[in-house]
Amino acid sequence: MNRTELMNSLAAARRKGVPEALIEDMRRDGLDEIARRKSLNAMRIKVEGMWSEKILPLQEEKKRVVASLAYPTHNHNNADPRQMALKAYLKVIDELLGRMRREAKVLPDDYGKRTTMTPSEYIKAKNVPNNGEHWSDFVPQHIKDRVCQLFDAVPHTPKARRKIAFERIVGAELHTLLKDRLIRRTEKELVKCKQDVLLNPNNEKLPERVQHIEQALDKIEKLEPNEPVPATWHGLL
Questions:
Q1: What is the mean pLDDT of the chain?
Q2: CA distance 48 to 44
Q3: Engineered SS bond to 13: which of 18, 28, 101, 210, CB 3.0-4.6 Å?
């Protein structure tokens, strides 16, 4: 129910002779519910946007693996090492995608509290290494080792590029998208921090923070085309 629908409902209640005290309760409850839903929707957009920056590179890797599985092979044996390695890798990717998508869904309880975590909250709670810079950081090392052993067992084909599982790269287009997003967020934070410096001239920490943000922006600009892009500028210092 939106605000217009609420007002129409209250007007209809008045026409039916509902007491004003009860109508006022209905109005207050209705406005509270509208505000709660608006806040929840804003939270949903924010959290899903944060997780999308982890999910998109993972989806990109999944497409590459699926394409490799579809590539014709001369060995139709179910024990084909290449097929076994790719299928095991795809299973890990699918499981991680499912986990990230579950975290991206904002599912409030009866009190309107969020039951999932943002990437930074998840990284801290689960002790994800490298500050969760790349999606592969979210995969436990023993699982990586198991999959990499399968790829090591694949016979090398001359002149063919060997598949590297959990490679810390992203596609050029996606890299540009994530890099531009990070630059915009960081520049916005830099503007705010410079304003804080002017408003709080006695705060000695603020100029240092401005310097750190400017250093991070310089490092963001220098990221290589296929290099993972951190979620925040803090990961570059």
A1: 87
A2: 6
A3: 18
pTM score, two decimals? 0.72
Assigned token pair, 171? 């596609």
Do 138 and 184 belong to one domain?
no
Tokens matching residue 5: 């629908």
From residue 18, alpha-carbon distances to 59, 97, 100, 151, 225 in Å are 55, 52, 48, 73, 66
The listed range with the strongest mean pLDDT (22-31, 209-218, 224-233) is 209-218
Same domain as 218, residue 151: no
Same domain assignment for residues 110 and 215: no
Kindly state whether residues 130 and 195 are assigned to the same domain. Answer: no
Domain holding 182, by residue range, is 169-237
Residue 109 has what pLDDT?
56
What is the sign of the dihedral through the CA atoms of 190, 191, 194 and 196?
Answer: negative
| pLDDT computed for residue 174 by the predictor | 83
CA distances from 51 to 54, 116, 189 (A): 5, 11, 20
224 by DSSP, 3-state: which?
coil
How many residues are listed for the chain in this entry? Answer: 237
Q: Look at the block and give the residue holding tokens 């939270």.
A: 43
Whole-number pLDDT of residue 141: 95
Q: Rounded to an integer, what distance in angstroms lies between the CA atom of residue 224 and that of residue 175? A: 9
User: pLDDT for 49-65, tens place per residue?
Assistant: 889 989 999 999 999 99
Residue 86's closest CA among 107, 57, 61, 65?
65
What is the per-residue pLDDT for 138? 96
